[in-house]
Design a protein that fits this description.
The complex is a heterodimer of chains A (293) and B (615). With 293 residues, chain A is of the alpha/beta class. Helix content of chain A is 33%, strand content 13%. Chain A folds into two domains: 3-205 and 283-289, HUPs (Rossmann fold); 207-277, no CATH class. In chain A, helix 1 (3-21) crosses helix 2 (33-45). Chain B is built from 14 helices and 29 strands. The chains are: A alpha/beta (293), B alpha/beta (615).
């Protein structure tokens, strides 16, 4: 079996285990290439269906094309789409673009806090009504106990320490030293009341694997990843004030793969365009411990 | 026509793990491997050097891996980190497992994924506790390809005698636990000797480098020639968009499945013929050239799904096999070899969860045959199994599960044990131990195997009747009101529009049991078996069945559960004191009237959601 098929089959196995073991299961969809590839894997795992909720944390600073693309796929693929955001921080302008927070504080409020409270149901959730095409306040406030996340071990140091199934405590904290073992296709699917488990089906994938898979499967991705004439494209997507495009003329997926394997990005870290990483001494660890993805 | 198999031309990859005692230099070797194969992302080396400069620390290759702050401050690897490098032959995923004993569970997590292992020993310190323990765990985990790196040769002036002494000592130990290393290599991670390049400082050593040894290992071949096994992960019927497929999904562990094969499920014994092998959108997508073709066969390693011609009811946890091939075994009492990683020792009497394939069942430790110190290999007879020890023991399961012997079929012969919420140990099955329910299970298996299946699927009946078939078993002492309560309960369910029936054990006595009803003759087990079979028929028909029987014991309940499986049983005890060893789901201790008692049972069942259409 070739490398991509091996990765694909293991990820599908993990997704099916998650579906079998968690009643309140959701998947985080950041609209980026990784979680979109993960969404595709879910459709393969469940033979064209996605039998759980997709959650998007909308910081209100996402590049607008990302939201357009999100809603287009949600309609076409009949996704149970929900978004949440930190309405208080946005209303009080406690953000980096407003000049009232450092980049890290801003990430912590708009992403980490918003995610925590969207997952546990304590802040409003907005669910796509497929009949009207509008998002409506969701009446269901039950916490999600299983959360599927598209992180990869090669992204940066702390992510390489994750398990496929990683328990988080009541405060969403990650007790790195006390993670239970995981082996022989058996995962930690039991959890204490009030806690939840994060599930990482893409842990063994690399950035190149993701692009080669997108190419092989012809998965639609948001066009921001491609050069559309100005010699720039995004390599990693985030909020516009903190994510810069890179100089690149890759116009399609095949050209991106070539660029990553042999071209100018062969040895350049993927998140080099993410400014918040640099504030943290080279790791996302302080954010991740508090629940960042 | 498309066959999903393991053939074809592609670049191999291999997962390897690096293990050994703390501070023997694993991370340095990994850092060196990454640097010398040009596998570091640009900027990573500079970043780590910059952090070292800021913290006034000399740069070490190990820091490349120990990217986490608190790891660097403690100077030890606490988790299994993954990194990637390539040789002209294949791509490697290298798992760096921690050497500190506190983090043995992380070492196991890393090592269990590997196809081969590098065991690192400090030439100065020689064989230490975890050099032995890690080797023992590798043998339990089934990692057979091993090379031993005797590291820090630069600190012993590259002395051949030091190398030979360590090699001799370790070789003897490995022999005892059945590990035959492919090679012993003298290396220095810090100086780069014999890692990617042959050392110029040890002319006495003519063997391969670490990269050479790795490239000589065999990449794992999927076990396609073994009997077919697929643990059922789920049975999917997603009706949206008019999808009417009923797909049995799972990952093929061993063997090969073709359209037209007759599959048999264990432990139930149900069988059917494969109508189609399913893929996304009804057809396989992906690799160039086969878009849109129907899949006709699938092999070990594939996450797949299939439909059957027959509408049989199977559940997650069963193992699919092919008729005519070696069968999986079924038992509820197992002789096993385990290793324990839990904070608390494994003790008698406590309920653990055992997970094998996709099955999940309560398990108790009933006999410790021997406890093995994985470091000294000394054997003890303990009263409990301490953290980091191994043991041979007997486990009693709450119901029979399907499995294979680890020696013959490792993938379906191993399991983990869950203590509270965490995986706390792992084990391999040596054999089925003697077991009281074996006869009943064999009878049930044969009944299911020969069953004439209706064309109406179970889930259609559940939807139509808006109820899940369930056996409500009411037991307790003599004249406590079991029967009047059961009859009132039947009436109440009936008035809610449920298909429900009351069956007292006496109703069978003069009919079904007439041939064995002789005074003074104890046919209790046969009476219960027939009760179970009668209940099975009613449950198959979709009914909610209420049965009363006096003073049932746990083994009575186990027998009935075995016979009516997979339907749910709710055991209820009526009366102030439970006079047998039975563990019930609900205890109706006190009630003011039969009417009130029935209402309390009804409340309990409603809260549990048993009257809803879907479980």
């Amino acid at each position: 079996m070739d490398h991509l098929s091996k990765l694909e089959n293991r990820s599908i196995h993990i997704l099916r285990e998650a579906y079998a073991e968690f009643r309140n299961l959701c998947m985080l969809w950041s609209i980026g290439k990784d979680s979109t590839a993960l969404l595709w894997l879910a459709r393969k795992a469940f033979f064209g269906h996605v039998p759980f909720t997709l959650i998007h944390i909308d910081t209100a600073y996402k590049i607008p094309e990302m939201i357009v693309y999100r809603d287009k796929l949600a309609r076409e693929w009949h996704l149970d789409m929900v978004y949440g955001q930190n309405e208080e921080a946005l209303a009080a302008k406690l953000t980096f673009p407003d000049g009232n927070a450092t980049r890290l504080e801003c990430c912590s409020r708009l992403k980490t806090e918003a995610l925590k409270h969207t997952l546990d149901g304590s802040w409003p959730r907005y669910r796509l009504n497929h009949t009207t095409g509008q998002y409506e306040l969701d009446k269901n406030t039950e916490p999600y106990t299983g959360v599927i996340v598209g992180i990869r071990a090669d992204e940066e140091g702390s992510r390489s320490k994750e398990r496929y199934f990683s328990p988080r405590d009541k405060k969403s904290d990650w007790d790195l030293a006390e993670q239970p073992p995981e082996f022989w296709n058996q995962y930690n699917t039991d959890f204490a009341p009030g806690t939840h488990v994060r599930i990482h089906p893409l842990l063994d994938w690399t950035e190149v694997d993701i692009w080669e898979y997108i190419l092989r499967e012809n998965i639609p991705v948001v066009p921001l990843y491609f050069d559309r004439g100005n010699g720039k494209r995004y390599r990693s997507l985030g909020c516009w004030p903190c994510t810069k495009p890179v100089e690149s003329t890759a116009k399609n997926v095949a050209e991106i793969v070539a660029e990553l394997k042999t071209g100018k990005f062969k040895n350049v870290a993927e998140r080099a365009g993410r400014d918040q990483d640099k504030e943290d001494g080279g790791g996302l660890e302080s954010l991740r411990r508090a629940g960042y993805m | 026509m498309l066959e999903l198999n393991n053939g074809g031309d592609f670049r191999e990859d291999m997962a390897i793990v690096i293990v050994g005692h703390v501070d023997h230099g694993k991370s340095t070797i990994v850092g060196r491997l990454l640097a010398d194969t040009g596998s570091l992302p640009q900027g990573k080396l500079e970043l780590v050097k910059e952090i070292c400069r800021r913290n006034s620390k000399p740069f070490e290759y190990a820091f490349l891996l120990d990217a986490l702050k608190d790891e660097q401050s403690q100077g030890i690897t606490i988790n299994a980190a993954r990194c990637f490098f390539k040789t002209p032959k294949r791509n490697y995923i290298l798992i760096d497992a921690p050497g500190h004993v506190e983090f043995l569970k992380n070492m196991v997590t890393g090592a269990a994924r590997a196809e081969a292992a590098l065991l690192v020993i400090d030439a100065q310190e020689g064989v230490k506790e975890n050099s032995r323990r890690h080797a023992y765990l590798l043998s339990m985990l089934g990692v057979e390809q091993v090379a031993v790196l005797i590291n820090k040769m630069d600190l012993v002036q590259y002395d051949q005698q030091v190398f030979e002494n360590v090699r001799e000592e370790y070789h003897d130990f490995l022999n005892q636990i059945g590990i035959r290393p492919a090679a012993f290599l003298p290396v220095s991670g810090r100086e780069g000797d014999n890692i990617a390049y042959p050392s110029e400082r040890m002319s006495w050593y003519q063997g391969p480098t670490v990269l050479g040894v790795l490239d000589a290992f065999q990449a794992g071949k999927p076990p396609v020639e073994k009997p077919f096994r697929m643990p059922v992960q789920g049975v999917y019927k997603f009706t949206s968009g008019g999808d009417s497929r009923r797909i049995i999904a799972g990952t093929v562990e061993t063997g090969r499945l073709q359209v037209g094969d007759e599959v048999v499920f264990y432990p139930s014994g149900k069988r059917g013929t494969v109508r189609s092998i399913e893929a996304f959108g009804g057809v396989a997508t992906g690799n160039e050239g086969f878009l849109g073709e129907p899949v006709t066969s699938v092999e070990a390693g594939y996450a797949t799904g299939f439909t059957l011609n027959e509408q049989i009811y199977v559940t997650r946890g069963e193992i699919a096999s092919i008729s005519g091939q070696t069968r999986p075994q079924v038992a509820s009492r197992l002789r096993v070899k385990i290793f324990w990683l839990g904070k608390n020792p494994m003790v008698y009497g406590k309920r653990y969860m055992l997970k094998l394939g996709t099955a999940r069942v309560g398990a108790k430790l009933v006999e410790i045959i021997k406890v093995l110190d994985a470091v000294s290999l000394n054997i003890n007879r303990g009263e409990e199994i301490q953290r980091h020890n191994a043991a041979e023991c007997i486990l009693q399961l709450e119901r029979g599960i399907a499995f294979d012997l680890a020696q013959e079929m490792p993938f379906t012969g191993r399991f983990v044990l869950v203590d509270n919420y965490d995986i706390a140990g792992g084990g391999i099955i040596q054999e089925a131990a003697e077991d009281e329910l074996a006869a009943a299970r064999a009878e049930v298996w044969s009944r299911n195997y020969n069953w004439q299946t209706s064309i109406i699927p179970r889930e259609d009946r559940i939807r139509e009747y808006n109820q899940e078939p369930i056996l409500i078993l009411i037991t307790g002492g003599k004249d406590v009101g079991k029967k009047p309560i059961a009859k009132i309960l039947e009436r109440r369910f009936f008035d809610r529009g449920k298909f429900v029936y009351f069956l007292g054990i006496v109703n069978l006595l003069y009919g079904v049991d007439a041939d064995i009803k002789r005074p003074g003759y104890n046919h209790r087990e046969e009476h219960l078996r027939r009760l179970g079979e009668a209940a099975y028929l009613m449950l198959e028909a979709g009914m909610i069945l209420i049965v009363t029987a006096r003073e049932l014991t746990q083994s009575d309940l186990d027998l009935i559960k075995t016979i009516v499986s997979p339907s749910r049983v709710e055991a209820i005890w009526v009366g102030p004191e439970i006079s047998t060893d039975i563990a019930v789901d609900f205890h109706l201790e006190r009630f003011s009237s039969h009417e009130a008692g029935a209402e309390m049972i009804e409340d309990y069942l409603l809260k549990k959601g048993v009257l809803q259409g879907f479980n």
